[in-house]
Amino acid sequence: MIPKLHYLSQGNSPKEHLENIQKACSAGAELVQLRLKNISEKKYLKLAEQAREITAHFQTRLLINGDYKIAKSIKADGVHLEKSGACPNIARTHIYTWQIIGSTANTLQDCETLIGKQVDYISLSPFRVSKAQESLSKPLGLAGYKAIMDVLKTETPIIGAGGITSKDVKNILETGISGVGVSNEITRDFNSIKVLNELLKASSTEEKRHTF
Asked: Does residue 150 contact residue 118 with C-beta atoms inside 8 Å?
């Protein structure tokens, strides 16, 4: 079962990433993705080990962005692979059988390809483009999410990501997306984790009600 809320780590330095992960875990995050860019593998491994200690203390799940070897080495809960990163099929042969693999998609075709590679969840991104993400793929918005989800028939959880705030959650869930990855809003105010969890939980309560 993939948690519906993913905190994508953020910070102006690696130390700040770790501090923010600790704050997110304290505030009730069920899953954290350590997302460090432009860093040596040796340093990434050391920071990932520290992140593993923090998340283990809180019994929070930890995903490592981009490096399945580090994810295996520190026994993280899994790895998140970017669109331009390693192939999930290759990662799968290297990691433990219990570790999860998530991957980023931007189009219906991306999603279908990843489902064929049996990823455990797909991050459909970006919802909107923030200043920090100008180089990313075309923003999808609600219309883009709906167009993909209307056609995509899958049990694989689809997580929306990229500039999402708590105000967007209700409308995003109505498109058929099952959860959200949030970075900026949570880093600004860790209390927003409680708000986001309540919005996501309300949605799953409604689903159950409609089922019976």
From this structure: no
DSSP H or E run through 31:
strand 31-34
Cα–Cα distance for residue pair 153/39, rounded to 1 Å:
38
| Nearest residue to 82 (alpha-carbon basis) of 151, 3, 161 | 161
**Residue 149, pLDDT above cutoff 50:** yes
How far apart CA 121 and CA 142 sit, in angstroms, is: 19
Q: How does pLDDT run across 25-68, given as a tens digit for each residue?
A: 999 999 999 999 999 999 999 999 999 999 999 999 999 999 99
Q: Which domains does the chain have, with CATH numbers?
A: 5-211 (3.20.20.70)
User: pLDDT tens digit string along 119-142?
Assistant: 999 999 999 986 555 556 889 999
Tell me the pTM: 0.93
Q: What is the pLDDT of residues 64-99, one digit of tens each?
A: 999 999 999 999 999 999 999 999 999 999 999 999
Q: d(Cα 128, Cα 78) in Å, to the nearest integer?
A: 26
DSSP-derived letter for residue 136 is S
Q: Which pairs with CB-CB distance under 8 Å and at least 24 residues apart come from 200-208? A: 200/4, 200/5, 200/169, 200/173, 201/4, 203/169, 203/170, 203/173, 204/4
Residues 6+ apart with CB under 8 A from 174: none
Q: How many C-beta atoms surround the C-beta of residue 180 within 10 A?
A: 25
8 Å CB contact between 45 and 73:
yes
Task: Find residue 79's DSSP bridge partners.
Answer: 64, 101
56 CA to centre of own chain = 18
